[in-house]
Amino acid sequence: MRLLILGGTTEASTLARLLAGDARHQATLSLAGRTASPRAQPIATRAGGFGGADGLAEWLSAEKVDAVIDATHPYADQISANAVTACDRLGLPLVSIVRPAWLPVNGDRWQNVESTEDAVAALGPAARRVFLSLGRQELHLFAAAPQHHYVARSIDPPDGALPPDLVFIQARGPFDKAAERKLLLDGRIETVVSKNSGGSATYAKIEAARELGLGVIMIARPAKPTGQPVDSPQAALAALSHAGPRSPRGV
Ligand code: NAP
Q1: What does the pLDDT read at residue 247?
Q2: In whole angstroms, what is the distance from residue 182 CA to residue 188 CA?
Q3: Quick check: is 250 in a domain?
Q4: Taking a C-beta distance cutoff of 8 angstroms, is the pair 212, 184 a contact?
Q5: How far is ligand 1, taken at its centre, from the CA of residue 108, in Å?
Q6: Are residues 70 and 116 in the same domain?
Q7: Which of 22, 55, 160, 169 is at 20 to 30 A from 89, Cα to Cα?
């Protein structure tokens, strides 16, 4: 089977490891191209957008892809919508790995907000010391609240206008709880702003905030379109082994 894996996540890297050297499949891993030095992968990779659902459909046809696995991040909703549209049009099986969201537990002090803009507003007018751990693409939105001190961490440095009082930490997960606790204590952080990414790689900051009694402003997940939902890379491959070609839309 010729497979396209839409990736950029731990699950996509696991799929690449599972498929490497598997003579039954020929898989390509696609990355958004957001990270300057992505982790090396044991299968063919490509990077950068396809040009919307139309571009993705053209790529899938040109490469004679038989099935797609959407293993993208819970907040990457656009590429997932494109995958649903393109696979629907071509009648290709689409399996989507859905990573469960974190749920608050006893001791968590979460304030749920709908968007990053709402997270900026939720910080309030009084100056706070804030840890931003939500990737680099939306950091510029915090320039609207320049009264706060920010510590921001992401894999690559941010670009664009940033709030004036921002310390940037360049790091790639996974992170452990002791290190996260130290980071929050050293920075005298009062509030953490996070996406509800789910999974274990970035959960330590949530545990550390709980232990230290810190509030977390949690940005809600977008509605992310899916094909056949599964909960793991192994389940995705099992689902494909049962999948037959779908009828293209309107055929
Ligand atoms: P997105 O909003 O779903 O995608 C925007 C566009 O980027 C897509 O329309 C597509 O461009 C391209 N794209 C995204 N993923 C791709 C992939 N795997 N292969 C090829 N092209 C891809 O996703 P995003 O802008 O990358 O990220 C949205 C949020 O998700 C970020 O703020 C971040 O918090 C989170 N996130 C994303 C990733 C990731 O690897 N993408 C990883 C961690 C976190 P075309 O329409 O031109 O095809």
Answers
A1: 54
A2: 10
A3: no
A4: yes
A5: 29
A6: no
A7: 22
Give the span between the Cα atoms of 69 and 29, in whole angstroms: 10
| 215 within domain boundaries | yes
Residues 58 and 84 in one domain: yes
CATH code, domain with 179: 3.40.50.720
Mutate to test the pocket of ligand 1, among 65, 70, 75, 134 (most ligand atoms within 8 A of CB): 75
Same domain, 95 and 6: yes
- For 26-42, give one letter per residue: b (16+ CB within 10 A) or e: bbbbbbbebeeebeebe
Tell me which residue of 4, 216, 171 sits closest to 90, measured CA to CA. Answer: 4
Q: What is the pTM of this model?
A: 0.94
**Per-residue pLDDT at 172 exceeds 90:** yes
> pLDDT at position 249, please?
53
Domain assignment present for 94 = yes
Q: What is the pLDDT of residue 245?
A: 56
Q: Is the distance from the beta carbon of residue 82 to the nearest atom of ligand 1 less than 6 Å?
A: yes
Q: In whole angstroms, give the CA distance from residue 4 to residue 8.
A: 13
Count of domains observed in the chain? 2
Same domain, 233 and 201: no
Domain limits at 72? 2-99+223-241
- Return the closest-CA partner of residue 218 out of 206, 210, 208: 206
